[in-house]
Amino acid sequence: MDELLPAGKYYIGDPCYVIDNSKWDEYLDPFWEDRGGIFEFDGHLCAAFYTRWGDGDYDCSDGTILGVDSGSIGAIPMALCHGDIDSGTTVEFDTPVECYSSNGVLHFGGYTVDTDPEDEDEEEDEDGYDE
Fold this sequence. Notes:
about 35% strand; single chain; about 10% helix; five-stranded antiparallel β-sheet; mainly beta
């Protein structure tokens, strides 16, 4: 069984907006080592994953648009948040939750962020080229 993120209050969004700048490199060490997923940082479990297309704006299933500047989105315990929590969404999990990435869709308990959405404006012509 995969490790679960404990119950509690979390920020879901780009971690670079809420992790203290003086601890950013320390935060990145376990994230890069595990290539995303659930990892321990500063005495707390965090979950974070790379986005499919790097920086940009991504829709969370609760209707929030998440701006991304670090190429990642995470669920960061509120106890670690020292920045702009309005850049993401805040949630409370009553029970431990599974967090994972599948085909560009990031899952944080019942919240999802599609980082590889189909572009409704792009259509292919019958030869397979974008119009």
